[in-house]
Amino acid sequence: MKEQLKQLELFFKSSNFYRGIRLGVGIVIPFTVLYFFGYFEYAPAVVVGVFLNAPGDIPGSVKRKVNAILISIGLTMIITTIILFSKPFLPLLLIAIAVISFVISLISVYGFRASLVSFSGLLAMVLAFAIQKETSQDILVQVALMGIGGLWYLVISYVFQKLAPKKDQNQLLSDTLLLIGEYLKLRAKLLTKKTKRDEILKQTFVLQHQINEKHETLRETLLTVRKRSGRSRYEEKQLLIFISSINIFELIEATHLDYQMIDGIFGERKEFLKASKRLNKIMGNHLIRLSELLIQNDKLPNKDVLLSALSDAYDSIDNYVNTVKLPEAREGALLLRNLYDYQEQLLQEIRAIRRVMANVNDASKVSLKRQDSSQFLTLQEYRLNFLIQNLSLDSTIFRHSLRLTIAIVFAYLLGYFLDIQNTYWILLTLIVIMRPSYGLTKERSIDRIIGTLIGAVISVGIVLITQNVIVYAVLAIVSLIFAFSLIQQNYKSGAALVTISVVFVYSLIHPNAFEVIQFRVIDTIIGATIAVVANYVILPSWEANNLKQVLCNTLKMNNNYLLATQALYHNSTENRHTYNLARKEAFLAISNLNAAFQRLTQDPKSKQKEFQLIYEIVTLNQTMISAIASIGNFIINHKTTPASQEFNVLINKISNTLQLAFDCLEDTQSENQIVEAPVEDAHKKLFGKYEQLSNLRDEHIKQGHTKIDTETLHGLQEAYLIANHMNWLKSLSENLKKATEQYRTALTNS
Question: For the Integral membrane bound transporter domain, which residue ranges apply (predicted)?
Fold first, then answer.
């Protein structure tokens, strides 16, 4: 019960509920004011304007948010005008529906915010069918009032932003820490769950993509704030938490170990890994609790359990050495020590977040040059040429636009000839649930139907209890607020609440509420069926056919990240910024690949071409980026020896192999092939350095120097990590090249 109450509190304090309240206020005030002044007949048009332009109000840059809403206002006014003037003429109306559906849905090529503006435009087209205006004057008044409603919502959004300026950022930071906490706990399972690793890895793919999406939005929000006037203390606090979250994410990535090697070293002695696994779980739970405190503003949890778990992880190294004995225990001890170092750094970042949350005044200042910070922003392409480039069947959005247009025109004609009472409900279902991918459309269709049925049952129950119009009005507003709050997080619940809201709005107009409920359910099922069938039959966009470009970009970014890590090893001070930039691009690329793989799993089994091969390529890329991150993180956090010639030889070999894999997929030949030096000697010399240090350490032990000094320990760690990881990366790159060649052959033969 306590947990449920906590979740309820978090929901009511969330920015999602705050946005729902924002919409509710935007709707209620025009109704109330116009009612008291005797102009209630104008209220519906104003409210429609509010409702249509709310979708573009999402977290991010204030400038982009305002621009999105203003574009949305103009677009919805134009579309409504065209549809209302075209309604009396069926051929003209069909042309208008087709052109608007195609052009507006194509706007989605400009990114997520543009897709929401596109949705507003399509929503305006659909709702125009519910508006009964015939004369030119009535139409123009209707459109003008909708414009006023849109501007009114922009004012409301601005006021609410001023009242709680950091609510969206805090929510984003909270969501990010929550996801990272869950991700860290999943990583803990990989240490010992030998039989379930594939299943766990697939779960991590989803979380990685979600974390990267949150980081991208936070970059847009936090790195663009107050560039001219500087940041406030609170903004410094948020930026520090954001930077720590990025560091934690990289550290988790860096601890993606060679699990086959771990199984080989520890065998049946997995009990020595349990302390490290437990530490990961405790740190994950601590991050989840900190995520809640960003919303709740409660007391920080005690850190003693963290310190105790860290101490246990350190003791497990000595226990392993004492049990297995040196020198046999050295390899396992070094692996545990490297893992401990990562976890210790993780704990330092978590404690940094704790310090920032505990006292803003003690937070360190963040020094980011404007030109440096701007390089970490992913700029969206808004040129017309970018839209024109997508006018091809090779473009997923282009195919989706055509598919959606055909489905909408078909649905409208179906409703027209069968004389369906509220055809626009079918159209509304189409634009809400239809997505470029079949899997997501099918999932949303099922959720939509289930949500609508749940909402219908609840509505029937309420109608049987009371026929009070005041109760209906209150429920219509309240359910809409909750629907808008939940629609992104829980689509099924959002659909149920939307149904309740629609039913009671119509119940205020039409006395027969049961008839409204009946038509609502039937129209939703018809719309959902058309959406699923259209995605399967009309220019289907199966993910297996769209992966090539995503794979190529991942290979390219991984190669850049590898070379940036090489430069970091040579000079960690001068090349740190370039390394961070390459890391960000590589993480985004692997995130997009993980998202594409997730969409592939949602397609019908018959359409999942070369599924196992694609899974192997995704896993190899993921493992490679983690291995590179592991080396980079060690370089940043330790005093290292100069990069050896052997290291450079192996980097060149791995880079060249990645380039060959890229060329294979792109069916091109690189102009600048790297001239490879013999790598076998390089391997032997790297391992020879580790063996030399290891033998020297054995001599020290024989002489009675059992306690190892820091310099010797770090030297052993560095030699062991570089030798093993370079060998690992070489093997990964070769396997990746082989897999991409097989994938290319499969594409050619299909």
Answer: 411-533
The amino acid at residue 457 is: V
Regarding whether 177 and 137 lie in a shared domain, the answer is no
Domain check: are 159 and 28 in the same one? yes
For residue 88, report the phi and psi dihedrals to the nearest 5 degrees.
-70, -15
Cα–Cα distance for residue pair 248/361, rounded to 1 Å: 23
Query: What pLDDT shows up at residue 382?
Result: 66
Instruction: Please provide the size of the chain in residues.
Output: 750
Answer whether residue 401 is part of any domain. Answer: no
Residue range 569-610, pLDDT digits in tens: 888 888 888 998 898 899 889 988 988 888 888 888 888 888
Q: What is the pLDDT of residue 670?
A: 58
* Sign of CA pseudo-dihedral 590, 592, 596, 598: positive
Q: What does the block give as tokens for 449?
A: 């139907």
Bigger pLDDT: 408 vs 360: 408
Sort 630 into a burial class: Cβ within 10 Å, 0-12 / 13-18 / 19+.
buried
- What is the spatial distance between Cα 335 and Cα 630, in angstroms, rounded to a whole number? 12
Asked if residue 610 belongs to a domain, the reply is yes
Which is nearest to 524 in space by CA: 411, 605, 668?
411
CA 731 distance to own-chain centroid? 30
Q: How many angstroms separate the CA atoms of 653 and 646, rounded?
A: 11
Q: Which residues contact 108 (CB under 8 A, 6 or more apart)?
A: 114, 115, 118, 397, 400, 401
| 156 phi/psi in degrees, rounded to 5 | -60, -45
566 and 531 in a common domain: no
Q: What Rg value do the Cα atoms of the chain yield, rounded?
A: 29
CA 715 to CA 724: how far, in whole Å?
14
Cα torsion 585, 587, 589, 593 to 10°: value is 180
Q: What is the DSSP letter of 89?
A: -
Q: Which of 240, 267, 176, 271 is nearest to 214 (CA)?
A: 176
**Angstrom distance (rounded) from CA 526 to CA 518:** 13
End-of-domain residue from the set 505, 526, 544:
544
Domain boundary residue among 132, 165, 198?
165
All residues at 6 or more sequence positions from 26 whose CB lies less than 8 Å from its CB, including other chains: 50, 54, 152, 153, 156
Rounded to whole angstroms, the Cα distance separating 720 from 338 reads: 10
Concatenating the DSSP letter of every residue in 515-568 gives HHHHHHHHHHHHHHHHHHHHHHHSS---GGGTHHHHHHHHHHHHHHHHHHHHHH
Closest Cα partner for 174 from 281, 296, 276? 296
Find how far residue 614's CA is from the centre of its chain. 21
d(CA 266, CA 273): 9
pLDDT at res. 21: 92
Q: Is the N-terminal amide bond of 327 cis, ω within 30° of 0?
A: yes
Which single residue is written with the structure tokens 């046999």?
A: 328
Domain total in the chain? 4
> Could you tell me the pTM of the whole model?
0.85
713 is written with which tokens?
A: 């320990």
Question: How remote is the C-alpha of 263 from its chain's centroid?
Answer: 32
User: 60: helix, coil or strand?
Assistant: coil
Q: What mean pLDDT do residues 286-313 have?
A: 89
Confidence band (pLDDT; 50, 70, 90) for 228?
A: very low
Supply 419's token pair: 């004389």
Neighbours of 371 (CB within 10 A): 7
State the residue range of the domain holding 173.
167-371
